[in-house]
Amino acid sequence: MTTELRTLSPAEWDGWYGTLERAFGGLAESAEERALWRDLAEFDRSLGVWDGEACVGTAGACSFRMSVPGGALVPAAGVTMVSVAATHRRRGVLTRMMRRQLDDVRERGEALAVLTASEPAIYGRFGYGVGAFETRAEIDTARVHLAVPDGTDGVRLRYAPLDDETVRQTCEEIYARAVPGRPGMLARQPGWERVPLLDPEMDRGGASALQCVLAEDADGTVLGFVRFRVQPQWGPAGAEGVVVLEDLEVADPRVPRSPGASKDAQAYAALLRFLFGIDLTSALRVRSRPVDDAWQHLVSDVRRCAPRQRDWLHVRLVDVGAALEARTYRTPVDVVFEVQDAFCPWNEGRWRLVGDAKGAVCSRTADPAEVALSVRELGAAYLGGVPLVSLAAAGRVRELREGALAEATVAFGSDVAPWLPHGF
Ligand SMILES: CC(=O)SCCNC(=O)CCNC(=O)[C@H](O)C(C)(C)COP(=O)(O)OP(=O)(O)OC[C@H]1O[C@@H](n2cnc3c(N)ncnc32)[C@H](O)[C@@H]1OP(=O)(O)O
């Protein structure tokens, strides 16, 4: 098979995107969604594989900046739109695209590549580790009650039209304030504010259009927002509607970086209580929330909320030294890592990481290794949500100097669990 791997020209977009759609089952997306992804596409980062005239492979990348522990926004390639035609599968087409893409990412000086996977088994071989999980839940709001913090009654709620530019901007400001406080969140690049508002009728599954409610304090300062839909349902005993939570952010604009601040907690509880109380509904579907999300501590019966976790953000350190220097560390750390990286061999070898809560230096060393692991485990631990010691328990990390593993585990941890608010 002779195939050609190259970047895409704008004129080739439709055929290229058709290959992608077919690999995902062949259902055509709405015109609205197609147009959005085309607008956001970076053609010089969009790879295709052609067999003669036929496009048989696709892989895109977005130039993101991602929040890491300590709050820095680090350039990261967002890998997306990966597919290989079923006629050409398991012949190494994906491997070729990943090779070319990671070389490009390195040349661009991006220390990280990140993605969400259709299937988690695909990307480990290319050095990606699962760095953030998400929680989903189906909450029985007829039986589960909320215990809200003092002050929640002082939060005012109002419906806000999603097509109002001021409302959009307000929500974006709240989102932007939340980004540095949670590793894994993406600073919104121009145009990406349209993604959470994408609302094609064909994807609603019988639910309403997206709705938005703002939470304000007594002065009218907006503290947070929720975007959701309602899916009306009727059973033999009456109404059994479902509220579907799409998006909820709080951040008091007067407090610099405020996860856990009391006004935030009140706004969060008020928005959640609102969702619980919508008439003619008896369930709240939580699509994707951080694993440490506060709702789990407000409910009377978490078992009736059926929470479940799944992999979400996969992280690849493309430049180990630069990536480890870009974040800070919860406690002082001085550890030599022996890194294996068969797919990106420039990362292989020993790295001494010296860091603390203010910053870090990570450089090549000939000193004896103290912790041995592959780049995949480093990617899993990078955002602070997966303890190195837990990877060691699975035999995937080895301690070579007594105490080094515990030291690194504590230092890598993040007070706030990593998470990504939406796919790309
Ligand atoms: C970030 C995103 O966009 S995620 C979306 C990914 N795309 C999809 O899921 C769409 C449907 N699937 C596909 O298009 C294709 O099957 C792909 C892209 C997943 C794989 O493409 P291929 O060209 O077949 O992969 P390739 O031949 O390079 O396989 C490389 C290795 O990965 C393995 N592999 C490939 N796909 C999978 C999979 N779905 N699950 C487990 N292993 C896989 C292969 O067996 C092979 O292993 P080996 O090196 O041990 O022999």
TrEMBL record:
CDD domains from the UniProt entry: NAT_SF
Molecular-function annotations in GO: aminoglycoside N-acetyltransferase activity
InterPro entries given in the database record: Acetyltransf_17, Acetyltransferase_Eis, Acyl_CoA_acyltransferase, Eis_dom, GNAT_dom, NAcTrfase_Eis, SCP2_sterol-bd_dom_sf
One biological process term in Gene Ontology: aminoglycoside antibiotic catabolic process
Domain N-acetyltransferase: 3-151
Positions annotated to bind acetyl-CoA: V82, S83, V84, R90, R91, G92, V93, L94, T95, S118, E119
Membrane-spanning segments: none
SUPFAM superfamilies: Acyl-CoA N-acyltransferases (Nat) (SSF55729), SCP-like (SSF55718)
Active site: Y123 (proton donor), F424 (proton acceptor)
Assigned keywords, A-Z: Acyltransferase, Transferase
Domain of life: Bacteria
Subunit structure of this chain's protein: Homohexamer; trimer of dimers.
Family designation: Belongs to the acetyltransferase Eis family.
Listed name of the protein: Putative acetyltransferase
